Amino acid sequence: MPRAIGGFSLLAMKALLLALPLAACAAATAPASTSVASPARILAVFAHPDDETLVGPALADAARRGAHVRIVYATQGDASAPETDLKPGPAIAARRTEEARCASAALGAAEPLLLDFGDGRLGEIVRPPARSLARLRDRLAAVIADERPDVILTWGPDGGYGHPDHRLVTAVTTQIVARESRRPALLYAAIERGTLPPLPEIAAMDWAETAPELLTVRAKYSPADLAAAGRAFACHASQYDAASRGALVPVFGSSIWQNGVPFRPALDRAEGDDLLALRR
Q1: What does each C-alpha distance from 265 to 51, 200, 205, 271 come to in angstroms?
Q2: How far is Cα 147 from Cα 132, in angstroms, rounded to an integer?
Q3: Which helix (H) or strand (E) holds 271?
Q4: Has this prediction a pTM greater than 0.70?
């Protein structure tokens, strides 16, 4: 996710004022905490460790209720660790790999998979052209074949706030799923138009917004799931200062997630408020 979120000078002060009443309303209709008889399988496909934050409560809810949840990252996020003195390369990759493992554990997910494509270099021009994306396609296709997911979550075509790596991961994941006749539900993480918190730090990132009628999946979650998402985000200490890590999830809980974590179905009809029981 974003290197630019850090330094929420206003967020830390406003988080609790915004968060508790509306987040509680969203949580009130969370699905029951019973385990599924035949565990559903959910795969989240993202570019960098911390990208999972946008769907954190939905992942935590699914894992808590017995689903097999795994996150795969196309890169190890080796280009940037602004809250450290580490230089781009293996040291940052190792640090962020540990942070990804911490986040998955906090969400109740399985061990994450981190591929070794370069952070910020998914779209690099090589010979033959687009070979990097062909390699990414083959690696992700192998992961999807091994995981056999019922549901795949990824960025929308906007990449959240336009990050090229995010957009490319979405495009490649969609390409893989679209070629299959028997395919999992592919859901794009999205932000409903008008729900972004009115804070300058958020506005500066130019997050994309989606019309509400397109968001036919809104995954409900419990207060425990929101807390798990907060613990997961706190793992990413190389990316965000302590105030930011404590503030972002409560703010999102009171704004973009107040009616559940929103998704736009990518290829096929999907509706509902429970990732483990979508109407398709």
Answers
A1: 19, 30, 24, 8
A2: 23
A3: none
A4: yes
